[in-house]
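hey
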């Protein structure tokens, strides 16, 4: 659609956006560069999500694929909640898939903004610690 309307992206490339938005692609990239990520699995049925949760423990985060604003997702503290959230999430997902992952609720979120020029010179512009713990 971008080509059809001759839209030019500034800054982040379309390829980078796709890698960040496609959960499996992003997960593969993080593993490839040895960046730690929460344990996760992509499922298309409720039982696969329950089996994964039983393996790693609760709480579990459910993120349906291709929904706006996290519609159909949530945090499950037990199997009953997981079954309800996952059932609803899979219905909302246009490809009937969801990412089921280990919760990081309660962790602290630190954010850094870095600027880099064409010579690969980097400078940290600012850093922040969010007041609310991750998962809120």
């Amino acid at each position: 659609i971008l080509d059809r309307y001759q839209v030019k992206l500034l800054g982040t490339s379309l390829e980078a956006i796709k890698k960040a938005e496609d959960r499996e692609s992003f997960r593969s990239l993080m593993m490839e560069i040895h960046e730690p990520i929460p344990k996760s699995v992509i499922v298309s049925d409720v039982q696969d999500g329950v089996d994964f949760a039983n393996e790693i423990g609760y709480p579990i985060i459910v993120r349906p694929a291709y929904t706006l604003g996290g519609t159909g997702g949530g945090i499950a503290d037990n199997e009953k909640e997981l079954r309800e959230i996952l059932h609803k999430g899979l219905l909302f997902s246009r490809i009937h898939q969801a990412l089921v992952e280990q919760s990081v609720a309660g962790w602290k979120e630190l954010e850094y903004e870095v600027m880099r020029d064409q010579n690969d010179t980097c400078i940290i512009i600012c850093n922040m610690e969010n007041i609310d713990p991750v998962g809120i």
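Residues 38-102 form a domain with the Dna Ligase; domain 1 fold (CATH 3.30.1490.20). The chain has three domains: 1-37, 38-102, 108-136.
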